[in-house]
Amino acid sequence: MTQMPTLFISHGGPNIVLSDTPARHYIESISSLMPRPKAIVIVSAHFETNGVAVVFDPKPEMIYDFGGFAPELYQMVYPAQGNPALAAQVFGLLQDAGLEPQRVEKRGYDHGTWTPMLLAFPAADIPIVQVSIDPSRDAAWHYSLGQALSGLRDEGVLLIGSGHITHNLRAYFSIMRQGTRPDPALSGQVSAFTEWFAEKFAENDTKLLLNWKKLAPFPDENHPSDEHLMPIFFAYGAAGASPLAKRVHDSKDHGFFANDSYLFQ
């Protein structure tokens, strides 16, 4: 069986499924980047726990974890099945790595999972296992989650981190409410941050990447809180030692809210 790549997606807001944007069209093209997955394991920035948790739910329902969006979004259903057998395998691998996972018997799909999967795999015929982040843990810890699950790529499992390369929502909503252009300084801070990641991934400089909070330019301006960046370290760790990183998408909403996506193989 062909070894699967791993993927980091900047998943956007839930309205991405209705928007005519480059980010949406990119996510719709994801299935063309790789062989068809046998199953998917996804780490969403919207699934937060103390430590790491694995969902065993065979039929996850929907979580509409947002407010103030178009009514039709609250009617959408992504009926992909769970996979308790794969969940048990994921749980065991995390346990073997000393990461002390927890079982979650029932949990639906949050928008960090169902919106990109609805666009990327609209037939909803690939089973999905959800794994959490812990927002109190650092990049190295989330990287270790990916390392623990890396071997699943040899079994046709696609490992996905779903978050956002930048996530300054205060600035985003301020600009949206006021109908103004972003401050050029803010746009420059976003570009400096995203280009730093692109350069370090191209160099495969794991040590510097895992120390992003101290070394990347403008970390707090791009991530007032860290949870939306942690899935990128999961995807990177899951790709094994010295992966080839490809920035496969890099559009910006309103000139500053970056949608970078990376394929690691």
UniProtKB/TrEMBL annotation:
Its cofactor is Zn(2+). Residues 26-244 form the Extradiol ring-cleavage dioxygenase class III enzyme subunit B domain. It comes from the Bacteria. One of its GO terms (molecular function) is ferrous iron binding. Keywords: Dioxygenase, Metal-binding, Oxidoreductase, Zinc. Belongs to the DODA-type extradiol aromatic ring-opening dioxygenase family. This is Dioxygenase. It comes from Borborobacter arsenicus.
